Amino acid sequence: MHFALILSSLAGLALAYPSYGPPSCKPTTAISDGGFESGTTPSASRPNPWLTRLFIGSATYSLVSPGATINNGGRYAFQASLYPGPFTNGASSLTLTQTMKTCAGQNYSIIADYWFQYGSENNCAIKIDYPYKTIRGSVTTPSNISPPGYWYTTSGTFQAVTNADQFNVVFSCSAGTSNKIGLDNVRIEPFAGNAF
Question: Which tops the pLDDT comparison, 16 or 115?
Answer without folding.
Answer: 115
